[in-house]
Amino acid sequence: MCKTLVLSSEYIIRTFQLAAFSLFPQEEKVRTPEMAVDSPAGVIIIAAVLLLAATTLACGSDAVLKLERLIPPNHELGLTELRAFDSARHGRLLQSPVGGVVNFPVDGASDPFLVGLYYTKVKLGTPPREFNVQIDTGSDVLWVSCTSCNGCPKTSELQIQLSFFDPGVSSSASLVSCSDRRCYSNFQTESGCSPNNLCSYSFKYGDGSGTSGYYISDFMSFDTVITSTLAINSSAPFVFGCSNLQSGDLQRPRRAVDGIFGLGQGSLSVISQLAVQGLAPRVFSHCLKGDKSGGGIMVLGQIKRPDTVYTPLVPSQPHYNVNLQSIAVNGQILPIDPSVFTIATGDGTIIDTGTTLAYLPDEAYSPFIQAVANAVSQYGRPITYESYQCFEITAGDVDVFPQVSLSFAGGASMVLGPRAYLQIFSSSGSSIWCIGFQRMSHRRITILGDLVLKDKVVVYDLVRQRIGWAEYDCSLEVNVSASRGGRSKDVINTGQWRESGSESFNRSYYLLQLVVFLVHLFARFL
What we know:
alpha+beta
């Protein structure tokens, strides 16, 4: 039974308008037809229309909404203008109502003598709890240490507080059973079934470390950047690993983090799970700062640089394999059989942020080191420190070292200046520079890790199956777009969203609270 309520449609909508413009005064001057779709004030006005419709249906009374022409009858438009108007309207119809650029902060550094890894923060559970996880394009699964973990480090020398996920504390956590279709994915999960019917996993990494545990379904919370002035806090159902056993380097406090942030191509990777829900595009990018302060940018979206060069991904591979064709030192191509870089004779060439340095097979490592040594022979002498091939330079500085160029399929080249492949070990009277490329003796594989990926925008385009890069100062802002199926959304500048992100989130939060309050207020009369 409806209570008596005498309110005109104009009154209801105007009430919401006043509320909207009190929160968003800069939009009071906006009088475009797009306002109700694209602006925060428009969201409140739409809520008013929906509320009016709900009131009409609930009370069973007739309602009359006055409609006005967008184009006055005394104003004629030509065919070209009408087609342009329809085209803009179609663009709004096709625009995805959800999703945007997902932003993850980056900490850590590439220098193996300091940190030797990059990590980000992820929020899991209800209420959300924050975890520091290593950024790893070489694996497919996000996992974190759980309270039941055996062998997990309790402290970290990275000056971060380690956290442990407790499924019993999160109100939204549920265990993934063996019969759940999510228990199996395309690559690397090695899923199994535990005696208590839990979907379990076991991973071994290239450095000999490993982890095992079971899968949990819960919520991941993250920042979604909708426009340059609007960032909202989003959440999505997500399956991740709960580690209850760790071994090898994962146990050591020196570089201990809470887990691994898998960005591979498998169906359980971060990019795949969010993309299939329409919350992120199937493209992600990072820009890792190479100086001692480290940090950088990582987004689920495409960082736009006009000088980006691309090389195709090798199809049907579990990793981000590319076709490296040759290596040149000071412009001279080294006498290396190109087949040593391919999957035809080994594991090929992999781009992997989970690897600190870079690795070459024997057939490529020896001629590479010899070419560098020949180039700097008049400036110092070669020395060996642990497994590093180093040079003590007595005349000149790092600029005496040669430029290195890696050539890939599709005509893309990655040019490495001396600081892009060298690490300084010490400096006391003379400089000791060590080559970051290491020998891979037991496997024919080339791995390009953080050593060569730093100080570059790197784009992983899974839609077009390609990887691109461009030299860049990663301390600067970048332009990002969210692409889906070949279409691009508006480009968003990170400098703008950093300045306005928290303010936009707070406004969006209060906007939501206001809408809920007003709907509740009017509903009391029904």
